[in-house]
Amino acid sequence: MFTYLSERTARPATGINTSYWGNSVWPIKYDNLEEDLSVDIVVIGGGIAGSTIAYCLAQEGKKVALVDSGYIGNGETGRSMAHLIVTPDDSYSRLERTYGKGYARLTADSHMAAIDFIERVTRKETIECDFERLNGYLFLQADHQPAILKRELYAALNAGLEVKEMNTMPGIKQSEEYCLMFANQAQMHPLKYLKGLCEAIQSNGGRIFTETPVDEIVPGGLVTNFGLRIHAERIVIATNSPANNKYMRHLKQLSYRTYIIGAKVKKDSLPRALWWDTGNHHVRLLKYDREFDLLLCGGEDYSGRINENISISEEQRYQSLENWMRERFNAEDVIYKWRRCLSKPLDRFAYIHNNAEVDDHVYIVPGDPGNGLTHSTIAGIIVADLLS
Ligand SMILES: Cc1cc2nc3c(=O)[nH]c(=O)nc-3n(C[C@H](O)[C@H](O)[C@H](O)COP(=O)(O)OP(=O)(O)OC[C@H]3O[C@@H](n4cnc5c(N)ncnc54)[C@H](O)[C@@H]3O)c2cc1C
């Protein structure tokens, strides 16, 4: 029986690459695969993409199995900030410029639909994952020009979003800062959400196997590292970085590393909100214990490209992030630090389709960086539709 660690027994993990999420719940473990199996569809990867896809397919009455090499949510999902926001890393103004207003609007509608989907599922399945609707504030990176925010405002309005200009920003020290307020954004505890999805998959007849690494995709199914087979008509590879297609996809993605710190702040001293800047910083709050909330702050993205300084140490990157946070928020001790690599699709959209370069029966969902949780949720809806 799965139980959550209480907030009080969660151990702080300063200096260790453990996320708050992973530290605040028990690992989401299921049985290992111990014999060959036949299903309609097998989904590889128990992050938010794979779990959502398996959830949607199980709802449709498909015979589905979900397998993960580790535990559920152990990958990127369990290390994210779990901001559920509609603004892509690359901004609506850039999307509009590159792809036109229609695509920018489709992007906004899709991410809004994904947040609505998560909210609906948490209600339907009574998943207690601290899902919360709140306003999000986009402000300028220190060296960016205000014109960037103006352009973003018009593009976001064109995309149909509920956004407005503000001359004050709640929570931040320099409260007179000009910013854009996006209504109806959200946040959650990603691992509690995945646990709820998994329970619903099982109650709809789906099978889940953890510590079951997939070694090979073969005609009509897959083979695990232990030589067992899952026979399936369709295979969905939701391993984030596609485990099957080693070159074609990876050449279309830029990998980089990003960092998160978690600092204690006096309980209720900051408003419930999300904050992010026109650079790569993201900030959110969560309830920690009776005395403190936890302020999570992410950024210091680093891709090792030629023009980047590769001699900066990890500790220096965490320190820069902490300095950035302290300039803007009143925070106490930093008690969490973690980092993780991400892959950014070069065309700025997650690829969600069958993997025609390899096999029409295989579907891949490589995810997306800043909005990966909503992109993966969109993947769940689309792939389940394609396979129905
Ligand atoms: C630091 C950080 C902050 C982020 N913040 C946000 C945010 O605030 N909002 C947002 O929307 N997105 C955010 N993202 C992005 C988001 O977390 C990811 O895009 C999303 O979680 C990807 O989900 P996924 O299911 O594709 O991948 P993952 O969660 O990585 O899941 C893939 C799974 O596949 C399994 N797997 C891999 N290989 C095999 C194999 N051979 N056999 C079996 N299983 C295998 C892994 O064990 C893993 O569990 C953030 C990412 C990072 C790193």
What does this structure look like?
By secondary structure, the chain is α/β, with parallel strands linked by helices. It has a domain at 132-185 and 254-344: D-Amino Acid Oxidase, subunit A, domain 2 (D-Amino Acid Oxidase, Chain A, domain 2, 2-Layer Sandwich), CATH 3.30.9. The protein has helices at residues 20-24, 48-59, 92-99, 101-124, 146-158, 190-203, 314-328, 372-386; strands at 37-44, 64-67, 83-84, 132-139, 163-166, 179-187, 207-209, 214-218, 221-224, 229-237, 253-266, 274-277, 282-287, 292-302, 334-345, 353-354, 362-364. The strands form two sheets. Strands 3, 4, 5, 6, 11, 12, 13, 14 and 15 form a nine-stranded mixed β-sheet that branches. Strands 1, 2, 7, 8, 9, 10, 16 and 17 form an eight-stranded mixed β-sheet that branches. Mean pLDDT is 89; it is low at 1-15. Bound molecules: flavin-adenine dinucleotide. Flavin-adenine dinucleotide binds at residues 44-50, 67-70, 74-77, 79-83, 213-214, 238-240, 243, 258, 260, 282, 298, 340, 342, 367-374, 376.
SSE layout and pairing:
Layout: H1 20-24, E1 37-44, H2 48-59, E2 64-67, E3 83-84, H3 92-99, H4 101-124, E4 132-139, H5 146-158, E5 163-166, E6 179-187, H6 190-203, E7 207-209, E8 214-218, E9 221-224, E10 229-237, E11 253-266, E12 274-277, E13 282-287, E14 292-302, H7 314-328, E15 334-345, E16 353-354, E17 362-364, H8 372-386
Parallel strand pairs: 1-2, 1-10, 2-7, 4-12, 10-17
Antiparallel strand pairs: 3-6, 4-6, 5-6, 8-9, 9-10, 11-14, 11-15, 12-13, 13-14, 16-17
